[in-house]
Amino acid sequence: MNESTARVVMGSGDHCLVADPDGSLHRCRPRRRRDPRPVCGDRVEWSADSPDGWIDVIQPRRNLIERGDFRGRPRGLAANIDRIVLVVAPEPVPDALLVDRYIVLSEALDIPLMLWCHKQDLASSAQSMPMRAIQRRFEAMGIPMMTGSTHDPEALNRLRTATRGETLILVGQSGVGKSSITQALVPTASLRIGQISASSGQGRHTTSETTLFDRPDGGALIDSPGVRTLRLDHLQPGAVDAAYPVIAEATRRCRFNDCRHGSEPDCGIRAGLAAGHIDPEALQRWQRLRQETRG
Ligand SMILES: Nc1nc2c(ncn2[C@@H]2O[C@H](COP(=O)(O)OP(=O)(O)OP(=O)(O)O)[C@@H](O)[C@H]2O)c(=O)[nH]1
Ligand SMILES: [Zn+2]
């Protein structure tokens, strides 16, 4: 048995890729078919073998980010995360529902969230209005927020300093600039992607997988490629309220605990709508996520 500790840098279907302490990559599989699947960021005990090594033990996870698959079953995305960095930009136009999903997820898992507003070179354009609306919400909720661009080394330095030593996961829509930020924080990232592709035997398929890179200044960075959906079926409906403090507060003023906010008398939600305190679009998103978590 050639057992040692390693970190999972990519988990994909029935195999994963681990990096040992000197950075060498090894393709491994879970020892038994029913064993839990390792995910990006896991620390594992493994044994070398040919053609693939074996994952013997997944060390206890500090946290596990999961997303519902197309049937709503939870699937592991990444583990042992210090901070979720949600990237938004003026272009592509931010998806408010996806932003809400990440707020809910970070609150439910108790993982600190940070908003990184990217492509500041486009921020003065009229198209940046939806991004500003998101910034105002984050400000109101007291969630930290930073701005920058790929072409602004000082801003990127501020991000480095604010998160030094942490394992970050970069999330957000496809095309917001996650790969560009990864490249800036980990200059060897594209080299590493080449090594990962070669070791995994998946060729360029790998670029669509969640991948962990060690940061030169300590800690690690996980680039989670664009997600079209991040279903939250596996969470409790109450978790959704974290992203909608105004709506959650209004429901507390409903006369009935089981108020459906329809025609019931003394409904806090209807009162909030009438008074203009509640944004009707936010209400729709809240209702949609509450529905989703009810399964
Ligand atoms: N204007 C502007 N464009 C940028 C900036 N950073 C990246 N881009 C461009 O945005 C596009 C998408 O960048 P990526 O880094 O590939 O985005 P991504 O979030 O990794 O996309 P996925 O891999 O699909 O999830 C590319 O054409 C980049 O050149 C920036 O600071 N300003
Ligand atoms: Zn009500």
TrEMBL record:
Predominant location: cytoplasm
Subcellular location: Cytoplasm
Residues engaged in binding GTP: G172, Q173, S174, G175, V176, G177, K178, S179, S180
Any GO BP annotation: ribosomal small subunit biogenesis
UniProt-listed Enzyme Commission number(s): 3.6.1.-
Keywords: Cytoplasm, GTP-binding, Hydrolase, Metal-binding, Nucleotide-binding, Ribosome biogenesis, RNA-binding, rRNA-binding, Zinc
Binding site for Zn(2+): C254, C259, H261, C267
Cofactor comment text: Binds 1 zinc ion per subunit.
SUPFAM superfamilies, A to Z: P-loop containing nucleoside triphosphate hydrolases (SSF52540)
A Pfam family reported for this protein in Swiss-Prot or TrEMBL: RsgA_GTPase
Cofactor(s) the record lists: Zn(2+)
Summary of the function given for this chain in its UniProt record: One of several proteins that assist in the late maturation steps of the functional core of the 30S ribosomal subunit. Helps release RbfA from mature subunits. May play a role in the assembly of ribosomal proteins into the subunit. Circularly permuted GTPase that catalyzes slow GTP hydrolysis, GTPase activity is stimulated by the 30S ribosomal subunit.
Family to which the UniProt record says this protein belongs: Belongs to the TRAFAC class YlqF/YawG GTPase family. RsgA subfamily.
HAMAP family: GTPase_RsgA
NCBIfam families documented for this protein: ribosome small subunit-dependent GTPase A (TIGR00157)
Oligomeric form and interacting partners: Monomer. Associates with 30S ribosomal subunit, binds 16S rRNA.
Protein's UniProt name: Small ribosomal subunit biogenesis GTPase RsgA
Organism: Spiribacter curvatus
